[in-house]
Write a structure and sequence with these properties.
The structure holds 2 protein chains of 2 kinds. Chain A is an all-alpha fold. Chain A contains 14 helices and 2 strands. In chain A, a hairpin with a 2-residue loop joins strand 1 and strand 2. In chain A, helix 5 packs antiparallel against helix 11, helix 8 runs antiparallel to helix 11 and helix 12 packs across helix 13. Chain A starts with a helix and ends in a 5-residue tail after the last helix. Chain B is an alpha/beta fold. In chain B, the strands form 3 sheets. Chain B has a 6-stranded mixed beta sheet, sandwiched between helices. A 4-stranded antiparallel beta sheet of chain B has the order 2-1-4-5, covered by helices on one side. A two-stranded antiparallel sheet of chain B has the order 11-12. In chain B, a hairpin with a 2-residue loop joins strand 9 and strand 10. The termini of chain B are far apart. The chains are: A mainly alpha, B alpha/beta. At the A-B interface, helix 9 and helix 10 of A face helix 2, strand 6 and helix 5 of B.
Chain lengths: 305, 251
């Protein structure tokens, strides 16, 4: 994180940031108004995506589940693009979170048949939804005027170059509050991982617990996508690695995922703005370039999808 | 007292799976639920441990309707062992047991070692994915015993267990059915086991109650023939009953 704050297209050195050091006015403005909020936003978005990935993996008992895999992020993207194309950019957070929530509630109704949970149904429906929402997003972009189109396309690829102060605070607050609430349900998540019927006899009501998890997850995904667009694979990669260290202990897993997701995304964003400076690469491309090969390698090793 | 079922009915997919059932389980005995495949044994047990909500009718435990009981309180009064496939997320044996002790690994070990016939101390440090079917079953059974519940509801508890462990388990259930006013309900496909160990049998066919009595009376030659398609009889010597099967019915 420290490194991320120092690197960038304007020269700000370590010693300038130490307490007592004097920073000239343009540098100070650059730091506090651009770089600091950007790093904070990247951390908030990355942390949120990783935490949601961890929760979804447990809920679906599928070690490679992720908000992008089951169509939730795509729904958020459609919500955001609609808001942006209609010129109500402030409303995109609400629209995006609502789209995510709607998708999760729909998936919940698909997955539960006669009170039995079927993750197979949920995954198939999720893939179909991903296609549907990608098409809708494409349609909105195609129908908007050329000027807007370019902005939307860049947003879709994922990045932090464009941020508003309150978007930063909103995403950070969402990450902290939702992660804390999820960690309080950590014990119940441990039990849910053992199967619905087992969870039931151990005193956890799987259907009710899922409702709560869906609500918190959609809030986190919705705001993360509305802030930074499509940043894929953080949600698979980070919890997957975190699991190696904390097994099924969800309190530790969620915390580690939040920290890991934040770190990975900040690192990717730093790479995005410094690798070909002053040209910027969308962060989503970098995470996909890192994440997809990892994902494929796991599949090749015969992990269950 | 105990479990009371009134006009209980379970339907799914437009088909009746169970009922109408009316009976009481008073406790202090080992009750076996028997019937051919698809007769509703698992469905009935799921209703008793609250996983399945009946389509109509009422189930009460000590006069409290199951539907209104708090999950935590219920899981302390009723311990259950469902037949469920293992999850793909991997647990260690201790972690899997600690799910029933609020995450306390030390207490999980202590409780597990008290159930000596399950031999869980040989499994410490291993992961569920490395265990055989019988060893996994031991872990799942142990969890049902943990909070020392009044009632135990076990779906095919002897499944995958070797014969000696299965016998030890059934002997334990027969000699201490329900420590504090509860009882034990087991679904069994093995009639010889059911006759040998259970105090009373609940015979199901197509979701309906055919017989509800001591093994020798519940499994009359007629019931064996009509429900199970077997020629044979139950003989009793003192307290012990035994099933003798001659062959499959002619029809």
């Amino acid at each position: 994180m420290g490194l991320a704050l120092v690197c960038g297209s304007g020269e700000i050195l370590w010693k300038d940031l130490l307490p007592g050091a004097e920073l000239d006015a343009p540098s100070r403005a650059l730091f506090w108004q651009l770089r600091f909020p950007r790093v904070l936003t990247a951390a908030a978005v990355g942390g949120a995506l990783a935490v949601v990935g961890a929760v979804l993996q447990t809920m679906l008992r599928n070690p490679l589940a992720d908000p992008f895999l089951i169509g939730v992020s795509s729904a958020s993207a459609t919500g955001t693009v609609l808001a942006l194309a209609a010129g109500i950019s402030q409303g995109r957070f609400a629209l995006s979170a609502m789209a995510a929530l709607g998708t999760l509630i729909f998936l919940d109704s698909v997955a539960y048949r006669q009170h039995r949970f079927s993750d197979h149904h949920l995954l198939v429906a999720g893939v179909a939804l991903t296609y549907l929402f990608s098409a809708l997003t494409g349609l909105v972009i195609a129908l908007s005027d050329p000027q807007t189109t370019r902005g939307l396309m860049f947003w879709l690829m994922g990045g932090f170059s464009d941020h508003e102060p309150w978007g930063t605070w909103l995403s950070m607050a969402t990450l902290l509050v939702c992660t804390a609430l999820l960690m309080r349900r950590g014990r119940e998540l441990d039990i849910l991982a053992a199967g619905d019927e087992t969870a039931h006899v151990l005193g956890v009501r799987p259907h009710q617990l899922r409702r709560t998890l869906f609500l918190l997850c959609s809030l986190m995904v919705g705001i993360a996508v509305a802030t930074a667009g499509g940043i894929g694979f953080v949600g698979v990669l980070v919890p997957h690695i975190a699991r190696l260290y904390c097994g099924i202990n969800h309190q530790a897993l969620l915390l580690l995922s939040a920290v890991g997701g934040a770190t990975l995304t900040v690192a990717a964003d730093t790479l995005a703005r410094t690798a070909m400076a002053p040209q910027e690469i969308p962060v989503g491309l970098i995470t996909a370039l890192l994440g997809a090969p990892f994902f494929l390698l796991q599949l090749q090793r015969g992990r269950a999808l | 007292m105990g479990f009371e079922l009134r006009e209980l009915m379970v339907e799914s997919g437009g088909r009746r799976r169970l009922g109408p059932l009316n009976f009481e389980l008073a406790g202090r005995e080992l009750v076996g639920v028997v019937g051919p495949n698809g007769s509703g044994k698992t469905t009935l047990l799921r209703v008793l441990y609250g996983y399945l909500t009946p389509t109509s009718g009422q189930v009460t435990l000590d006069h409290d309707p199951l539907a209104t009981m708090a999950p935590k309180e219920f899981s302390i009064r009723v311990g259950a062992c469902p037949q469920e496939a293992e999850p793909s997320l991997d647990f260690s044996v201790e972690q899997a047991l600690a799910l029933a002790t609020g995450g306390d690994l030390t207490r999980a070990r202590m409780c597990a070692e008290k159930i000596d016939f399950l031999g869980l101390e040989n499994l410490w440090g291993r992961r569920l994915s490395q265990l055989s079917g019988g060893e996994k079953q031991r872990v799942r059974l142990a969890r049902a015993f943990f909070p020392d519940p009044d009632w135990l509801i076990l779906d095919e508890p002897a499944n995958h267990l070797d014969l000696a462990t299965g016998w030890a388990l059934m002997e334990c259930l027969r000699s201490h059915p329900g420590s504090s006013g509860g009882g034990v309900v087991v679904a069994l496909h093995d009639l010889a086991f059911a006759v040998r160990f259970c105090h009373r049998l609940l015979v199901l066919r197509g979701g309906e109650l055919v017989a509800w009595d001591e093994p020798a009376k519940a499994l009359s030659e007629e019931v064996l023939d009509h429900v199970f398609g077997l020629r044979g009889r139950v003989t009793s010597q003192g307290e012990l009953s035994r099933l003798e099967i001659e062959g499959v019915s002619d029809r």
